[in-house]
Write a sequence for this structure.
C-alpha cells in the first residue's frame, strides 16, 4: 500500500514537473504585439541584431535611441487612420502604418511589411512623409 502510494506520488510529481517545464511561448498574430513582446524580452542590442540584422549601422544607431525609449514604457499604439492628434501627412496608402505615442506626444511612426515592423523611423520634410529609414 505504501509502495503504491509512493509510486503514484512519484508519477504525479513527474507529470507536474513536465507541465511546469514546458513553458508555452506567446505567439502573436499582430506584428506590432510580437515586436513589443520580443523587444521587452531582450536587451536593445540583441533585439536589434536579431530583428534588424539587414539594416546598416547608421540606421541602427538611430533605432537604438527609439528602441530605448519604447522598451518597457507606457505607450499607445494607434492605426494611422484612427489617430486623432496632429500627425504627419501621408500621400498614398496608410495601411500598416501605426503611430506610437506617450501622453498624446508622438514618439515615432512605424510601418509594417511582411508581418514585421520593417521601418521604425519616418523621414519627413516639414509635416510630409517622404520616406522610411
Amino acid at each position: 500500500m505504501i509502495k503504491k502510494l509512493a509510486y503514484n506520488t512519484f508519477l504525479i510529481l513527474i507529470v507536474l514537473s513536465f507541465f511546469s517545464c514546458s513553458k508555452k511561448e506567446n505567439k502573436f498574430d499582430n506584428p506590432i504585439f510580437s515586436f513589443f513582446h520580443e523587444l521587452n524580452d531582450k536587451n536593445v542590442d540583441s533585439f536589434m541584431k536579431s530583428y534588424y540584422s539587414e539594416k546598416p549601422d547608421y540606421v541602427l544607431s538611430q533605432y537604438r535611441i527609439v528602441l530605448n525609449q519604447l522598451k518597457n514604457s507606457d505607450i499607445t499604439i494607434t492605426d494611422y487612420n484612427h489617430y486623432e492628434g496632429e500627425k504627419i501627412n501621408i500621400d498614398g496608402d496608410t495601411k500598416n502604418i501605426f503611430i506610437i505615442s506617450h501622453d498624446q506626444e508622438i514618439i515615432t511612426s512605424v510601418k509594417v511589411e511582411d508581418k514585421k515592423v520593417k521601418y521604425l523611423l519616418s523621414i519627413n520634410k516639414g509635416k510630409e512623409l517622404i520616406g522610411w529609414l
